[in-house]
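Need UPF0225 protein OCS65_13770's 3D structure for a figure. Predict it.
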Amino acid sequence: MSPRERAPRPGPTTPCPCGRGLPYGECCGPFLAGGHAPTAEQLMRSRYTAFAVGDEAYLRRTWHPGTRPVRLDLDPAQRWTGLEVLRTSGGGFLHTEGTVEFRAHYRFGGHADVLHEHSRFVREDGRWLYVDALG
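Structure prediction for UPF0225 protein OCS65_13770:
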């Protein structure tokens, strides 16, 4: 795969990149296709999947407008290789705020690395949105 190509979007029966063990069509696929994630953790997992397949539009759509960057330039040479959800707080069906701590594994420039983050989410008008990473 050339450095300018992204990983192809998974088929509906292919395992979802987010690591839940479900087929893409039953996991993150419906959210990337326009549905709304019902929990902060599911939104975070679907955003990881969007990074893995290079779906900048989904990332922008699920980013809170108060913290969303003007531009989002994903590097197609970066390959997301695995996700570990470590802890969640709030972010459920009855909450309006939540956090998710995770490790996202990736390869870039021939080297493996990990992004460790505590992400903050809010639910507005029934939709979960990514706000930012906690200090």
